[in-house]
Amino acid sequence: MATETSAIDMQKAQGFALRIVGEITSNLIGTLHLVGDRLRLFETLAQRGPLTAEQLAAEANINERYALEWLSAMACHGYVEYDDDAKTFTLPIEHAMVLSEKDSPFYVGALIRTQPDFWANADILTDAFRNGGGVPQSQFGGEWRCGFERFSRPAFVNNLTNHWIPALDGIHDRLLHGGSVIDVGCGNGQAAIQLATAYPAAQVRGIDIFPAAIESARQNAIDAGVGDRVRFDVHDAAEGLPGSYDLVTCFDVVHDLPRPGSTLRAIRRSLNPGGALFVLEFNLSSDLQENIDHPLGMGAFGYAASVNYCMTTALAADGVGTGTCLGERRFREMAEQAGFTSVTRHDFPTNPFNLFFEVRG
Ligand SMILES: C[S@@+](CC[C@H](N)C(=O)[O-])C[C@H]1O[C@@H](n2cnc3c(N)ncnc32)[C@H](O)[C@@H]1O
């Protein structure tokens, strides 16, 4: 008995217990982050700060008692800074870039809007663990999609037409002079809107299997002033693409596809001579150990996102359920099986969180 007890590292157990308390705290902070985002509290702090709780309550039109408790939690958790003499709270500019500046390259805080649906779907997910199947995409509502849209949009605004497409052999010139491009799995349409804005002579389309996304994309295009220059349709890319293109783009889509083989073959058939497929994926590996040792610590995010959404929605559609951690090796295998003859990886230093592939042949 004595030997068994001494084999247990109590410090390690205590350290892990503290870590789990920290993780639960992060979950609790998540609700406060969500409410803060919904009520634009981060924007208010960024624009009007430093603010006392009373001032935030007045500026944001919220209850003062809640303002103080929210700010206190945010200060303890390090989202905002507190001045004990002045009793004021500040959102540092570096944190505002993450939480409230919608065009900033680090604007990732909007992902919090995806969290309520993950929790709301926990019963369906538990059932899928027992019986197979998954959580259908229809279980993810407008707040989820708009949260994801706000997360993916800044990379399109900052990079798509001035860094990514110019890196593809000959494509930028084709689009400038009236070529054609389709964004497959366009979601709420932000990438296609950037394409239509930067390449007014090109034919720009977006397709998505999810009708609510296409409705949002159409409205977003009108709001951006390019409603007449981009066409959005509900369409399953695995059934074949409508038309032929100089460029097909898939942003964070290939690993989500229920039928990736048929879809990649359909994309290949739709390419004009000299055309290319451009793929963005999360910078994850096809190999579990490499994801455990991931230099940016993204492995847990990848598998958790996979179970909560990417693998799960594909399994719900009777798909293969590739999962978020597709990685370079498995993507190259998929592309080769679909008949493509060349996959070139591009690395963009301003986008360390993503993998980029130019696919041809
Ligand atoms: C993670 S979202 C990415 C959305 C968008 N590209 C972005 O980066 O914001 C993946 C999208 O792929 C779409 N999708 C999945 N399978 C599809 C298919 N077979 N045909 C068309 N769209 C599909 C989903 O409906 C979803 O909108």
What does this entry look like structurally?
- It is globular and about 65 Å long.
- Helices cover 51% and strands 15% of the residues.
- The chain has 16 helices and nine strands.
- It has 361 residues and is of the alpha/beta class.
- The chain has two domains: 9-101, Orthogonal Bundle (Arc Repressor Mutant, subunit A), CATH 1.10.10.10; 117-360, Rossmann fold (3-Layer(aba) Sandwich), CATH 3.40.50.
- A seven-stranded mixed sheet has the order 5-4-3-6-7-9-8, with helices on both faces.
- β6 (245-251), α13 (260-270) and β7 form a beta-alpha-beta unit.
- The mean pLDDT is 97.
- 40% of the residues are buried.
- The chain has helices at residues 2-7, 10-38, 41-48, 53-60, 64-76, 93-99, 115-120, 122-131, 142-164, 171-176, 190-198, 211-223, 260-270, 288-292, 299-316, 327-337; strands at residues 81-83, 88-90, 180-184, 203-208, 230-234, 245-251, 271-282, 342-346, 354-360.
- Bound molecules: S-adenosylmethionine.
- S-adenosylmethionine (SAM) is lined by residues 137, 148-149, 152, 184-187, 207-210, 213, 236-238, 251-253, 256-257, 263.
